[in-house]
Amino acid sequence: MTSLTLWLLVALQILMGAFDTLFHHELAERLAWRPSQRRELRLHGIRNLIYALLFLTLGWTEPHGLWAMLVIAILAAEVAITLMDFVEEDMSRKLPASERINHTLLALNYGAILVLLVPVLMAWARTATALVPVSYGAWSALASVAAAGVALFGLRDLAAAARLQRLAAGAALAKAGDLMTALPADQTVLVTGATGFNGSRLVEALAAAGHRVIVLTRDPHKAMRLPPPFRLVTTLDQIPGDTPVDAIVNLAGEPIAGGLWTAARRRRILASRLRVTRGIVRLIARLERKPAALVSASAIGWYGLWQDEALTEFDGGKSCFTHRVCAAWERAAKAAERDGVRTVRLRIGPVLGTEGGMLARLLTPFEFGLGGRIGHGRQWMSWIERDDLVRLIAHVIATPSLTGPVNATAPTPVDNRTFTRELARALRRPALIPIPAPLLCGLAGDLADELLIGGQRVLPDKAEQSGFKFRHPTLRQALAAMLGSRPEPARPHRASRRRKFAGGLRTRSLSLRSDLAVLAARHRLSDDRLLR
């Protein structure tokens, strides 16, 4: 193992493997939270533990005799596991082009490593059996760091596979078809933004319930990931005027938290929403039979920043970038009312799910114990679980009395400190690393002020008054369903326990006084009878 070329190839393999794990598996695909990838995660976990063993063995020892033969056998097993992993990935998910390219480079580089390493191991195998301690300086240190990293991810992948097995067995989240119980049968629904985090789940639920779905997307390749059946259109002009459409759900728009709010990005955020919404209004105008409802997405950013004040549906949001975007978006949607279409502007809070959105971004750092509150942690987070959002959309379509703005948030918003504590508890990890507000504001500017440091305490007043029931009304229940944790009841704060204890004493005191009064009255009654 004194060959510089061999060590350079090993270092390149480590770098490409780290990129594949962090960028593809963790950030892009989030495999650790996809129940369909349980087998792939097991293969990754076993392979990473094999890598850890190889890095430590070859970085600090010369395996001779039977030890060398064992290392050769482990290398062969790694090749077999990698081939199984490639087959499993192709069968269970659609790999992006960048991941396929990286896998090809990893395979070629690993082949070059074997060409240089196996002859050395064969030579060592002809000597007496022993593990001879050696040190290659910085290369041994690199091998140790790599071993620690792959061992950590290997153990996490095996634990994630077991967790996903429990989730699948417990059926914690609803089946897609069960989310559409509010809708009448045999509906035709046009969905824009159908390939996004929320839209894809809505399409899945509609299709599973037997409804006809028309999907609008600019990227047909992304639409291929959606569960059939559905009708695909790339422009609204492809929908003829005699097409029967019962409802339209407009979720299209560039993600508002997908990057820094430069001037160009602000224009794209607004234009992407107005372009599609105005196109929908034009479509409605030329449809021979008008849809019964247009459900057009907005956001709780419409309200602006109100600190601790509880907000129900009202007109009069405070001016900021998110308010201006939402106000223009809602004005564009209201134009459909001129054609007699009931229009609902759904003001959506942060949507929680393991496959995307805010929660998915937090899972990896929190799972590795690197989570913490954002800033002071007192800002409100008016969240909603993704399946509850899909159910609410179905409820809105099926409820003719609902019109105008409707808040799509859970009935129990929490501050960021509580959110951090509950997420850490659900993952059984500490959350001790806060993110300073000045750092966020310095890096992200208005985006941090409005989406991370600021907040709104929004309540779903109109939804609840119309009879909608949340399946996950509390954050603890929602996280338990999504993450497979046990939904234990929250332990009351010490002050709350003191108040409860004092209240119990007062109750018992009142009860005792009441009993004494009854006894005294009976005693007087007995005396009166004796006097008579």
Q: Span between N and C termini?
A: 114 Å
Uncertain parts: 492-532
Number of H/I helices: 17
Structural class: alpha/beta
| Strand residue content | 5-15%
- State the helical fraction: 55-70%
The Rg value, from CA coordinates, equals 30 Å
Note the main sheet. Answer: 7 strands, parallel
Structure in words:
The protein is of the alpha/beta class and 532 residues long. The protein is built from 17 helices and 15 strands. The protein has helices spanning 4-28, 38-60, 66-92, 97-125, 138-170, 197-208, 220-223, 263-286, 321-334, 357-367, 386-398, 416-427, 437-444, 446-453, 461-465, 475-483, 494-531, and strands at 61-64, 130-133, 188-192, 212-216, 231-233, 247-250, 293-299, 310-311, 342-348, 351-352, 380-381, 384-385, 404-408, 414-415, 457-458. The longest helix has 38 residues, at 494-531.
Task: Give structural attributes.
seven-stranded parallel beta sheet, alpha/beta, disordered C terminus, 15 strands, 532 residues, two-stranded antiparallel ribbon
Q: How is the secondary structure organized here?
A:
Elements: H1 4-28, H2 38-60, E1 61-64, H3 66-92, H4 97-125, E2 130-133, H5 138-170, E3 188-192, H6 197-208, E4 212-216, H7 220-223, E5 231-233, E6 247-250, H8 263-286, E7 293-299, E8 310-311, H9 321-334, E9 342-348, E10 351-352, H10 357-367, E11 380-381, E12 384-385, H11 386-398, E13 404-408, E14 414-415, H12 416-427, H13 437-444, H14 446-453, E15 457-458, H15 461-465, H16 475-483, H17 494-531
Parallel strand pairs: 3-4, 3-6, 4-5, 6-7, 7-9, 8-15, 9-13, 10-12
Antiparallel strand pairs: 1-2, 11-14
